[in-house]
Amino acid sequence: MDVLTLYGPAYSVYTRIVRVVLEEKGLPYQLEEVDFVSSGMPSTQKDRHAFGVVPALVHGEDTFIETAAITAYLDEVFCEPTLRPASIAARAHMAATISALDHYVWPDIRELVTQTYFNSFVGGWPDESVTERMVKRLETSLTVLDEKFIGPGHLGGTRFTLADLHAAPMIAYLAKTVEGQGLLQARASLLAWWESVKDRASLNATEFDLLDYPWAQRSGD
């Protein structure tokens, strides 16, 4: 089998999504750290991704970009265990869930986490007005997720799929904040889903320590 090489930092939520899929599939891979926060995005990554973002996956002679496309490719090429539903309609619902996470949920989680979690590693202070605004926005989007997208224990369907794996690293970041814990506790279906996935081996295998990175050590300066 051609070597699978993933380019991106362990702290990137989208890099981690690809990693948990690789772990769930039991695929060996190499993680090449691209620590863009410490030193900026290197030109080599811009060669891999036209917009200069992470992650990018190299498999043999091909380079793949955009997380949802990468994970679908992995599930298509490496069939077992399958992480997509069999029917066309169910796959469309899964894809819609992933799109909703990317467009309506993660941007606000990212901003909340930046203010209340990442700032503590760089010696900064959260902007309370931004935090309050993100919490208010998440009260709406997470309620929609809780009521409209969670089926019998899974996101966007009736079985465990790429949608669950797409969401898990996002909610893992949310759960690191006090505000996020409160938001989860107030939404029974979402909380039950999170409790069912948070200890999966794939998430444990892709844990990371921000203090491994130079930018996260500035709080001690």
Compute the separation of the termini in Å. Answer: 46 Å
The share of residues in extended strands comes to 5-15%
The largest pleated sheet is described as: 4 strands, mixed
The SS-based structural class is alpha+beta
What is the number of beta strands? 4
What is the annotated CATH architecture of the largest domain? Up-down Bundle
CATH C-level class of the largest domain: Mainly Alpha
CATH topology of the largest domain: Glutathione S-transferase Yfyf (Class Pi), Chain A, domain 2
Helix content: 40-55%
Uncertain regions spanning at least 5 consecutive residues:
none
Element pattern in H and E: EHEHHEEHHHHHHH
Q: Give the rounded overall mean pLDDT.
A: 95
Whole-number radius of gyration? 17 Å
The number of helical runs is: 10
Count of separate structural domains:
2
Order of strands across the main sheet: 2-1-3-4
Tell me the overall shape: globular
Write the layout of secondary structure elements.
Blueprint: E1 4-7, H1 13-25, E2 30-32, H2 36-39, H3 43-48, E3 56-59, E4 62-65, H4 67-77, H5 88-116, H6 128-149, H7 162-174, H8 178-185, H9 188-197, H10 201-205
Parallel strand pairs: 1-2
Antiparallel strand pairs: 1-3, 3-4
Task: Name the features.
single chain, 221 residues, alpha+beta, Glutaredoxin, Glutathione S-transferase Yfyf (Class Pi), Chain A, domain 2, four-stranded mixed β-sheet, 10 helices
